[in-house]
């Protein structure tokens, strides 16, 4: 049985939907914190069990009979987040699964300026130390994260951010499809190739793209890291969120997210969705000035 954690979240649910198109529902199990939210999956024949990375016992039950476990990273950083990932890896091992897969990120590195990359690198070390067969999915940056960085530029006409570098923005839909293919068809070990869309683009390019989509000029305005930090702090961003948001710019101008690869296209058998199409669908265009 293939077990997917985080199946009430965006990526995990997308993977389950893709798996349902490939293998019988009886061969899929989900480990979720709230089983009621996965009722629709249970009705379609998926095994739904409660599993929380904070509780080893719950995971052992949720992973019972696993051939492979897809661990969707929880988003909790720091020591507590790492302890949860260790608990999940231990449970996957105890369940007798032949392979564990983990949603890492392109640019995963212990020295990254972007805190989540340090966390992914540390989790990859835990996977290596587990002695289990494992695949670390080096996912591209979610295009949905860019919408948050664009913020109210659609309304103000100014895309204000620190100096940056290109990022290969990639959609959840494509990553979910690729993950299902890897789970069912690829015996990859260790870090995957970068799973990215076909182009990397910087904020200057994003401003031009958004301008084109909304039909009005959006100007890219570069500010210092300090000015941006003060701007975010004034909005009440806590320290960790400040470090994460500023880290995107510092790491991207270091070139950490610039490399594209054809691996995602090869897995899904078509060109990945473009950032332009994703932004057209997700930007708040109706109330643009
Ligand atoms: N590649 C990128 O650019 C990028 C960007 C942001 C985040 N990420 C990472 O990718 C992950 C998946 O992305 P997503 O968009 O699917 O996020 P999401 O919709 O927030 O889903 C995260 C899932 O993790 C589950 N989770 C959180 N804490 C847990 C715990 N203690 N035990 C078990 N499950 C737990 C959540 O469960 P509930 O449904 O019960 O809340 C949720 O289903 C994120 O969690 C984050 O680590 C990647």
TrEMBL record:
Residues in NAD(P)-binding domain copies: 6-144
Organism: Paenibacillus glycinis
Name of protein: NAD(P)H-binding protein
Domain of life: Bacteria
InterPro entries: NAD(P)-bd_dom, NAD(P)-bd_dom_sf, NmrA-type_oxidoreductase
Gene3D superfamilies according to UniProt: NAD(P)-binding Rossmann-like Domain (3.40.50.720), UDP-galactose 4-epimerase, domain 1 (3.90.25.10)
């Amino acid at each position: 049985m293939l077990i997917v954690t985080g199946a009430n979240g965006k990526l995990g649910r997308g993977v389950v939907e893709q798996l349902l198109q490939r293998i019988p529902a009886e061969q899929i199990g989900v480990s979720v914190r709230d089983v009621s939210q996965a009722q629709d999956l249970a009705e379609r024949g998926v095994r739904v069990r409660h599993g929380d990375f904070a509780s080893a016992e719950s995971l052992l039950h949720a992973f019972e009979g696993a051939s492979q476990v897809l661990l969707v990273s929880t988003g909790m950083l720091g020591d507590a987040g790492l302890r949860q990932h260790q608990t999940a890896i231990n449970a996957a091992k105890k369940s007798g699964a032949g392979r564990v897969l983990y949603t890492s990120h392109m640019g995963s590195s212990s020295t990254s300026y972007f805190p989540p990359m340090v966390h992914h690198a540390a989790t990859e070390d835990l996977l290596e130390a587990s002695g289990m067969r494992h695949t670390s999915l080096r996912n591209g940056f979610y295009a949905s994260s860019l919408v948050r960085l664009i913020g109210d530029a659609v309304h103000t006409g100014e895309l204000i951010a620190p100096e940056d570098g290109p990022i290969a923005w990639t959609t959840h839909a494509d990553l979910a499809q690729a993950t299902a293919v890897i789970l069912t068809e690829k015996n990859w070990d260790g870090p995957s190739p970068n799973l990215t869309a076909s182009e990397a683009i910087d904020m200057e390019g994003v401003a031009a793209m958004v301008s084109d989509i909304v039909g009005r000029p959006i100007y890219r305005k570069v500010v210092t890291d300090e000015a941006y930090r003060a701007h975010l702090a004034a909005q009440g961003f806590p320290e960790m969120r400040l470090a994460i948001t500023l880290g995107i710019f510092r790491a991207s101008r270091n070139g950490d997210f610039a490399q594209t690869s054809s691996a995602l296209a090869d897995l899904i058998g078509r060109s990945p969705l473009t950032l332009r199409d994703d932004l057209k669908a997700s930007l708040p265009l109706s109330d643009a000035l």
